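step 3/5: co-fold with alpha-methylisocitric acid
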Amino acid sequence: MLYSETTPAEKRRLFRERLATGELLRFPGAFNPLSARLIEQKGFDGVYISGAVLSADLGLPDIGLTTLTEVAGRAKQIARMTELPAIVDADTGFGEPMNVARTVQEIEDAGLAGLHIEDQVNPKRCGHLDGKQVVDTSTALGRIRAAVDARRDANLLIMARTDIAAVDGLDAAIDRAKQLVDAGADAIFPEAMRSLEEFAAVRDAVDVPILANMTEFGKSELFTSQQLADVGVNIVIWPVSLLRIAMGAAGRALDTLNDEGSLTRKLGEMQHRADLYELIDYEGYNRFDTSVFNFTIDR
Ligand SMILES: C[C@](O)(C(=O)O)[C@H](CC(=O)O)C(=O)O
Ligand SMILES: [Mg+2]
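step 4/5: write tokens
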């Protein structure tokens, strides 16, 4: 009933334990708190909270318009609805190193298990678009040092994302990844890798977990979980996929409604009321107050 039973500290501790095994952990992107529960119900390892989804959800482009308050608030709503660890996209950290420090504390207080901070200049853009710019090494490292110093729970995973590969090439990404780890990053998110070989090269260069971003219609081929596990990737995200699927289905349903005047033909594609109630755990609320769920639902 209500929110997750696992405390944020416990989620972080368990997440660290799972990461230490070296296995691949699968983190689909939740586009709302409810979809985080679906991700948990289907047996995934964690929930990713995407900046691209957060901004798209507000009808905004992913160019750093969302504020720390909005991101931490939404991340909290999502993270507290699942027993799984949740990682949030903190973009560039919302400002200078002092702002990054505050970002980390807000996100920690919001109950997240981890976050990533990238080395793009502001205004940032989707890592899979052309024309990105990255900050110099000392600025990039300054962000990570500030993040690491600011956390109060040592288990909060501070991941450094580098977008430099698309600007200066793979060797530059490897150099930067090593420096980010030296600055205290617990994990590396090498953005816009083009091949499994590139993931493998980053894997060989650093001694911390690495993340693969399997976003669609971007620069990376869509590798399977097995392919990514085979090259030693530790976390894979499908950041925007569920939103794309849901919006695609919503668009087609609206077309049907226009054409046929009814959604009867779409019923089989819909989440059934009974499944929705199960996901929300009406039964649990009923144990608290037996008048909540005293009806039946026909399938
Ligand atoms: C991972 C990402 O940062 C996100 O916000 O989800 C995006 C995803 C996308 O725009 O497809 C990214 O920059 O890769
Ligand atoms: Mg993003």
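step 5/5: annotate
The domain at 8-240 is CATH 3.20.20.60 (TIM Barrel).
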